[in-house]
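the two lines:
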Amino acid sequence: MNFFRKYRFPIIVGLFVLGALAYFSFSAGKGVERIPAGRYLLEAAGPVQRGISGVGQWFNSIWRHYFALVQAAEENDRLRRELAALKQRTVDHDELELANRRLKKLLEFKRNLDYPMVAAEVVGTDPSSQFKTVIINKGSSDGVLPLMPVVCARGAVGRIIWASPHYAKLLLLIDPNSGVDVIVQRSRARGVVEGAPGGELRLKYVIHTEDVQPGDKVVTSGAAGVYPKGVLVGTVSKVRQEEDGAFQRVEISPAVDFGRLEEVLVMLRRRQLDQ
Amino acid sequence: MRRDASRGPRALATLVLGFLLAVLGSTAFSWWALGPLRLEPLIVLVVSAGYRLPLVLGFVVVMFLGYLADLLSGGVMGLNLVIFSVIYVICQLARRKLDIASWPFQMLSVGVLSVLAHLLTAGGVTLTVPSYVPPANLPLLFLAQGLISALTAPLFFGLNEALVGLLARCWPSEYKAVP
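prediction for all of em together
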């Protein structure tokens, strides 16, 4: 008893800090939250986030549509949507053409992209400057589960890392913890896209002999089992040949404007490798 | 040793305000962000808990705040839990010699500990993502973030104290026992 009294502070501190460290090391690399209490907390936070986001969007809408140029804003929105859809259609078309050249069946390719989807709204963004996640208003009761890929009209957005009944947390492509297996559409060079500081993407593990040029489109390879093949990830913005090392340094501008993410589509697709 | 009768209202105020500020941090505060720089009210609450709550109760409150921050931020669960625990322990040690009643010291504490929190976060990310290369301007970014946190610290300290005062009215017998 005297021992506990004498060393009360270090014992309590040690217990709590070790507990926190144990939880961190247990969670690291898993990317999926398994404690049920978290779901209830997110369920409690979600409606508040949704309410605040709704109020914010209402003010934003008033500002843009009544105090700013009414017609121009609407026209701009419509044109942006059309442009984004056309861009994705161009990418789809290029991908189909290349697939035909390699004697792939068009039907099989279309089936690859043909998944049931659920639309969701972004209700909260990451409060930290070092991480890139968002909360969406669809959860396990809508069929949304961890590891499901998320896209929008412009291209790949990220993947679900965990879900409560009505909300889910989405790890964006630009987060440093994110990694997607991709191919350069023109040359079929393969690599892994990871989040880089400043909201950019970095294409890694592309060896020196591969042909990668600025302007090349980068699409998902479908290899890692999370994303289907052919979803636009971004465009190569910079290629640098390193003096030493086996790989090229390739930077990618994301296809999606993550700063203006409002609505997304969750592909109700379980990871192929898990099945 | 006399127990601080305001610990109940203070713990509850920290929990309630922590929840509200965490939700605001993921919505309204991110709209007012200056580029990558954000308001960080949870650090203020952790510092406040470290200086003013008893060891075990404070740890429970800080663990809740860390878990909440992990839920709403980042892809690795437990990172904020560890960082908040470290900050809390530092404040518990510092309270033996110092007090944060004055706003300049509140700003100084929060500013320094905010920089430390970001350094630990970067360290945590480097541990979990070995290929992560921190940007060159990271130290400058952390200093700027620390400055913003320091400048806004008295506001969140004030909010917390106001809520403690409000909730203390629901604990009349205990709270009034404090001379």
